[in-house]
């Protein structure tokens, strides 16, 4: 077991990294503001499940196997970039649409929101690099498997807390009213940011 005195600075840094603007956070914020709390939580849960997927791969040492087959990571990268471009186009269309915005601007089933979050995170193979680096840096050499489980479970708990909090915060009535007043600005910003994220994913070298 790793002492909590050694673990909490890592968890704090992990929380900051998870909450930093990126494709997953943008999707959570957009769903929560435009579709309400339920859609925000659905997207955040999907993103979290994607994080569990990458954490398990890294924990079982499968990351090295994927790195040895770079074409798999490249395929995921291209698919992920394409999906982010689709989200950018949808946001751009919403920004240019005429008519008054409604509170439920994102009107999609919860399963669709969940799959959106899951797809965004699973199609970003750079996530396994973060998990692999985390385990390599934090887990002492020769440590018991329980240490790996402790770090992985702790970071996943922090991830779930941060993403759920953001889904809750951005679905409040105050934020919703602001979204109604400035929905075209928000959607235009999301279009630009999703497009930029797609470009970064497309051009980044995973290996």
TrEMBL record:
Parts forming coiled coils: none
Species per Swiss-Prot/TrEMBL record: Celeribacter baekdonensis B30
Transmembrane segments: 12-35, 47-72, 78-96, 117-140, 146-170
Membrane disposition: Multi-pass membrane protein
Keyword Transmembrane helix: yes
Name this polypeptide is given: Lysine exporter protein LysE/YggA
Keywords (A to Z) from UniProt: Cell membrane, Membrane, Transmembrane, Transmembrane helix
First-listed, main subcellular location of the protein, grouped into a coarse class: membrane
InterPro entries membership: LeuE-type
GO CC term (a single one): plasma membrane
Alphabetized Pfam families for the sequence: LysE
One GO molecular-function entry: amino acid transmembrane transporter activity
Location(s) in or outside the cell: Cell membrane
């Amino acid at each position: 077991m790793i002492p909590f005195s050694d673990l909490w600075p890592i968890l704090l840094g992990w929380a900051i990294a998870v909450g930093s603007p990126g494709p997953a956070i943008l999707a959570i914020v957009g769903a929560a503001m435009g579709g309400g709390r339920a859609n925000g939580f659905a997207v955040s849960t999907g993103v979290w499940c994607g994080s569990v997927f990458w954490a398990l791969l890294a924990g079982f040492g499968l990351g090295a196997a994927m790195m040895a087959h770079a074409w798999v990571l490249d395929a995921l990268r291209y698919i992920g970039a394409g999906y982010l471009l689709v989200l950018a186009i949808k946001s751009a269309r919403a920004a240019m649409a005429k008519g008054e915005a409604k509170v439920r601007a994102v009107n999609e089933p919860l399963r669709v929101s969940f799959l959106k979050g899951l797809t965004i995170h699973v199609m970003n193979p750079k996530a396994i690099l973060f998990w692999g680096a985390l385990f390599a840096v934090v887990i002492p050499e020769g440590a018991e498997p329980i240490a790996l489980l402790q770090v992985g479970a702790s970071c996943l708990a922090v991830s779930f807390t941060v993403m759920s909090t953001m889904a809750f915060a951005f679905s409040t009535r105050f934020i919703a009213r602001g979204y109604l007043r400035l929905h075209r600005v928000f959607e235009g910003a999301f279009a630009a940011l999703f497009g930029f994220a797609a470009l970064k994913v497309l051009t980044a070298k995973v290996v």
